[in-house]
């Protein structure tokens, strides 16, 4: 089945077709000044709803619409969410019908099952879903990278692809790529901390965080669950990072308090800028929620709440944009009285026990 799915998606996601369609779009190239003011950099994050498509052109139009809006707002960077390819499952014959049935059933049982609905949905479906993920991996990766590369070059903007399934030999990973305004690939980061859902599907974890140098600062690109653990951002900070890109797709009903286990506290602990994009909506009986947000240390925000921009609702389509100021970030770090306080002697035993260090 995996082979047949890959063959079908190779037909549906043609790189030549992508290039041909981009020529039809006739995107007006944006000319941005090469002189970047580190005290005035605009960034945008996408919150979007899953919408299964039956043509590659519709998917390109969707991505293009967000990038075009970000470009009009003079953003230097736009960030797409985790599992940014789910819409392409619409290429699977009969998917629309099956999707409707599964979603209706899940909505009907939502109140009864609550959080147990995720587990019940996965029972008996692991092999089927894993085969789909493995089958679509290579065609989707190639297609998404091609589309984002062309969008980045045409609009002269840095673009984070959102995450897709990366297949290396027989192993699959949840990964995302960053492209520069010249259309070239800057780098690809694998997700390092997996959810139960991903473990059941056989997704493997990455074990290294890459740092990328952009004209306006250093950035890392962990994915969703990676922000649940403070170590991710602590390590990024020690690596000299200024910004963290974090795509999410939370497979749960939205809760403000659950959302606070992620990027917002990590930004406050580490004195970094945080850019969160989010995927939402229903697909195959699964419900994803989450707000896009741009965050900074408390003292750097007008309301002293650590929020530079936040989408108004946890579902639907939104593009949020904010200005970041590197000079103010460095000043805030210097003024932070207790930031990065350490007591190595006191912490030694606890660190050894926590991380099983001999």
UniProtKB/TrEMBL annotation:
The keyword rRNA-binding is annotated on this UniProt entry: no
Entry superkingdom: Bacteria
A Pfam family: CN_hydrolase
A GO molecular function held by the record: hydrolase activity, acting on carbon-nitrogen (but not peptide) bonds, in linear amides
Ranges where the CN hydrolase domain occurs: 41-326
InterPro entries named in the record: Aliph_Amidase/BUP (IPR050345), C-N_Hydrolase (IPR003010), C-N_Hydrolase_sf (IPR036526)
Keyword annotations of the record: Hydrolase
Database matches in PANTHER family: CN HYDROLASE DOMAIN-CONTAINING PROTEIN (PTHR43674:SF13), NITRILASE C965.09-RELATED (PTHR43674)
Record protein name field: Nitrilase
Species assigned in the record: Candidatus Sediminicultor quintus
Taxonomy of the source species: Bacteria, Pseudomonadati, Atribacterota, Candidatus Phoenicimicrobiia, Candidatus Pheonicimicrobiales
């Amino acid at each position: 089945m995996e082979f047949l799915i890959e063959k079908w998606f190779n037909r549906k996601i043609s790189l030549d077709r992508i290039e041909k369609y981009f020529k039809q779009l006739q995107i007006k190239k944006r000319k941005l000044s090469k002189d970047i003011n580190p005290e005035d950099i605009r960034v945008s994050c996408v919150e979007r709803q899953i919408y299964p498509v039956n043509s590659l052109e519709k998917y390109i139009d969707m991505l293009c619409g967000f990038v075009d809006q970000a470009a009009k707002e003079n953003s230097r960077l736009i960030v797409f969410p985790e599992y940014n390819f789910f819409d392409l499952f619409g290429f699977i014959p009969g998917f629309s019908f099956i999707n409707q049935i599964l979603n209706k059933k899940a909505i009907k049982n939502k109140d009864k099952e609550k959080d147990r609905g995720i587990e019940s949905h996965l029972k008996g479906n692991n092999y089927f879903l894993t085969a789909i993920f493995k089958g679509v991996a290579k065609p989707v990766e190639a297609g998404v990278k091609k589309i984002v590369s062309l969008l980045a070059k045409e609009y002269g903007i840095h673009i984070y692809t959102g995450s897709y399934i990366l297949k290396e030999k027989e192993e699959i990973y949840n990964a995302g790529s960053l492209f520069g305004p010249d259309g070239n690939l800057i780098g690809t980061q694998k997700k390092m901390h997996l959810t139960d859902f991903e473990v059941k599907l056989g997704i493997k974890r990455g074990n290294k965080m890459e740092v990328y140098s952009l004209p306006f600062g250093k950035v890392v690109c962990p994915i969703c669950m990676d922000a649940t653990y403070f170590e991710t951002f602590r390590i990024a900070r020690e690596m000299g990072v200024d910004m963290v890109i974090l795509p999410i797709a939370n497979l749960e009903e939205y809760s403000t308090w659950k959302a606070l286990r992620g990027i917002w506290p990590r930004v406050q602990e580490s004195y970094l800028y945080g850019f969160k994009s989010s995927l939402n909506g229903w697909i195959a009986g699964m419900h994803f929620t989450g707000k896009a947000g741009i965050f900074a240390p408390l003292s750097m925000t007008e309301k002293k709440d650590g929020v530079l921009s936040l989408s108004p609702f946890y579902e639907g389509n939104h593009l949020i944009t904010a200005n970041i100021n590197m000079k103010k970030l460095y000043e805030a770090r210097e003024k932070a009285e207790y930031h990065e306080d350490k007591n190595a002697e006191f912490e030694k035993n606890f660190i050894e026990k926590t991380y099983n260090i001999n």
